[in-house]
Backbone:
């Protein structure tokens, strides 16, 4: 039997029969990953978007170690603890003003599931049984559990389960060119009076290809939805905690969401944790002497004390002046690099929102997660010591905030070499 056949691990998003053997990482520090075979890589995507402050950040590690000596886990039904209380209060203070309640779970998909269930039960608890429709955007990705898949754009990811997914009304992602059309479609859907909620990834659709759109295109839709008593759900699992240049992508909006889903960067990449942040009026619909109005949802590791301790330490680091300066510096450096390469032949479009930079390449075939250029981009960068994970023919950067000027310059150098290589290979002389 081959080594792959005897390996007991089944890796995510991986066709195990044809995938290259996984690289064993022995250790990591700050922006660097150290492989067992001696290679090192700049982690330019924050290890699937979770790592805010660099690997093995001592402040977060110490907070977890200290908490582990005091309380590692306790059931969160009927009990509470200081790390969760502190984190909930701090989140309420930095989230939009309408947000007053924090419901804990353990990852991004479950944070979305909680938001969808809260939105639907909100209407049910009031005896309003006809408001059950969800509106979402095309090309959306909200996670891999069934509710999250249902509100995500239909794709090969969800195709085997499509007959089991609930029906969703999908709108084109708004932009200046289609704004009037999308508003008209939204108005038509709202006129039916059966819409319970609108869910969206604010400003950046991550797995959809780092597709970006402006607050000015989203705000009118939120205004329409809220005027029609539709609950607005912001999936900030990827965009939260500084990625868009502000603490939350919702901070760019005039109309604030009623529910906000958080995960990924919340613990600085150390521990799994999910949060669904909630407006007071939604909580009030569950606050009753009737047990039937209870929100019957929970997870074994809800508000795990170690994860909450990590999140508190990460939030302290994020809000510190030096981290905010690092974020601003990354934003500025991305913009300068983008201007240098935007006109380079094979670059179809370069997009930036805060610390997120995406380069879409103009090649044969439509833009797709399964575009064959993906492996070529990945291998080219990895062989030069830079870890990125292209979304098909879209390469992107989302580095930890601690990345140094020298490291970021090295990453830009590899991307420039990649562009030159692709120009030479695919464009006529």
Residues:
């Amino acid at each position: 039997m081959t080594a792959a056949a005897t390996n007991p691990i089944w890796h995510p998003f991986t066709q195990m029969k044809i995938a290259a053997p996984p690289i064993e990482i022995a250790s990591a520090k700050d922006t660097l990953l150290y492989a067992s075979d001696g290679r090192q890589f700049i982690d330019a995507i924050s290890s699937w978007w979770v790592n805010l402050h660099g690997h093995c950040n001592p402040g977060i590690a110490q907070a977890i170690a200290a908490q582990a000596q005091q309380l590692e886990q306790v059931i969160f039904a009927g009990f509470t603890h200081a790390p969760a209380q502190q984190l909930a209060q701090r989140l309420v203070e930095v989230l939009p003003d309408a947000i007053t309640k924090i419901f804990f779970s353990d990852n991004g998909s479950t944070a979305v599931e909680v938001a969808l269930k809260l939105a639907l039960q909100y209407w049910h608890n009031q005896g309003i049984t006809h408001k059950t429709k969800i509106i979402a955007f095309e090309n959306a990705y909200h996670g891999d559990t069934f509710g999250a898949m249902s509100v995500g754009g239909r794709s090969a990811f969800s195709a085997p389960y499509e007959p089991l997914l609930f029906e969703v009304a999908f709108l084109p992602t708004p932009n200046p060119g289609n704004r009037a059309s999308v508003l008209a479609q939204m108005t038509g859907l709202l006129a039916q009076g059966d819409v319970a909620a609108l869910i969206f990834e604010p400003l950046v659709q991550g797995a959809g290809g780092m597709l970006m759109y402006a607050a000015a295109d989203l705000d009118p839709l939120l205004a329409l939805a809220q005027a029609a008593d539709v609950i607005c759900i912001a999936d900030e699992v990827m965009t939260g905690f500084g990625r868009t240049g502000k603490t939350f992508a919702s901070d760019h909006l005039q109309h604030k969401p009623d529910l906000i889903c958080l995960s990924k960067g919340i613990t600085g990449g150390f521990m799994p944790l999910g949060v669904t942040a909630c407006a007071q009026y939604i909580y009030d619909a569950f606050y009753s002497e009737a047990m039937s109005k209870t929100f019957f949802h929970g997870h074994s590791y809800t508000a795990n004390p170690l994860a909450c301790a990590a999140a508190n330490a990460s939030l302290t680091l994020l809000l510190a002046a030096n981290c905010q300066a690092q974020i601003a510096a990354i934003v500025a450096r991305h913009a300068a690099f983008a201007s240098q390469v935007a006109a380079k032949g094979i670059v179809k479009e370069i997009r930036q929102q805060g610390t997120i930079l995406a380069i879409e390449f103009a090649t044969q075939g439509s833009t797709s997660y399964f575009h064959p250029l993906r492996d070529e981009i990945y291998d080219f960068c990895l062989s030069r010591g830079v870890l990125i994970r292209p979304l098909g023919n879209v390469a992107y950067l989302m580095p930890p905030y601690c990345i140094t000027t020298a490291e970021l310059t090295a990453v830009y150098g590899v991307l420039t070499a990649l562009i030159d290589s692709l120009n030479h290979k695919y464009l006529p002389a």
Notes: The first strand starts at residue 25 and ends at 29. The CA atoms of residues 87 and 182 lie 38 Å apart. The chain is about 35% helix and 15% strand.
